[in-house]
Amino acid sequence: MNPRRELYTLVGADLLSNLGTRISVVAIPWLVLETTGSPTRMGLVAAAETLPYMLSSALATPWADRFGVRRTAVTVDAASALVMAVVALAPWLGFGALLALVAVAGGLRGIGDRVKHVLFKPAAERAGVPLLRLTSAYDGLARGMTLFGAVLGGLLINWVGITRAIWIDAATFAACALLIGVLVRPPAPAQPAPRESYLRALRGGFGYLRTDRVLLTMLIVVSVSNMFANASVAVWIPLWVDRVLGDPAGFGLVLGVFSGGALLGNLLFTVAGTRLPRQATFALGLALSGAPRLLALALSDDLVVVLAVTFVSGIAIAAVNPLLGAALYERVPAALQTRVLGISGSVAFLGLPVGALLGGWSVAVLDLRPALLVMTVVCLVLTVGPLLLRRPTADRPAAEPVASTPA
Prior knowledge:
With 407 residues, the protein is mainly α. 84% of the residues lie in helices and 0% in strands. Helix 4 runs antiparallel to helix 8 (162-183) and helix 9 (198-211) crosses helix 16. The chain starts with a helix and ends in an 18-residue tail after the last helix.
């Protein structure tokens, strides 16, 4: 198969499963609301999926290396299709069964996302596509799929009902497994990975990440950025909209403008990103994507001002994920990529649950505007400060270390 066509197939299959996931993000909470009428149970279902997702992203990766990355991707997506098909039967199985099924689905998706991303690097190298261009294009497409999938999920519930909407999610996983299983054929490694115990393999991933200060710093500041982003979405922006506009449509408008800016930024960065200085671009993206949004909410009651700042912040955030992704692909030895990418995903997502708690606590203690002013400063210090304190490094790493597992 043509290397470029194989790369496009791999990325397209992953985006297809992402589309299905976004449909279920809308459909499953709606299913819980219709069958139980309980907001508390809606929250329980969300937590039941998120925690296994984070854990499997890091802890299941040694098994994926042993089983084979491509084989794991196909198996996990096929299993995800089966689990989501059964989720559609949840009203007849009971709420406890739904919780268990959603937890299994989250765990499968966590490892599935990681192993498919590991396949991206060798496919891009065979196709002659620069890694930074791939990560930027993928980030933009994934953001677009998030927007489209959420809208499509709501429409499908109206058109075909909740059960069939979830079956469509199952079908996207099955199609992803079929595409990768039939059309993606990465060459076998020159040397098979050494057999080692699960704990030793897991320690190898954590050990490498601990010694690479550049990657560790990038992951920490991205996790902190996610923390403030989730606090904004969960608490600060809805409260500002309620107090200033009194119209919930304003909340969707603010989020939509940010996503629109991010999509434009991804397009610009995909074209020009390979010519920009990486460290400075990464720091500037973090500086402009977080703190200015909070400051605008704190100081202005003008929706136009908030939307303008939000749009610029969306453009800025577009550089952050692609630069982190490229750094992971380029700096981590091939033999450790499954484990390190999995651990990295878990670290980056750690800020999400903390952010929701931080948003509520800050407003309860300080009220909205003082909280936003304080958090503007804290956000800027915690996201950009570590990058400024770190000793400057070359934009590209030296030759990749020998692909062997640390003891």
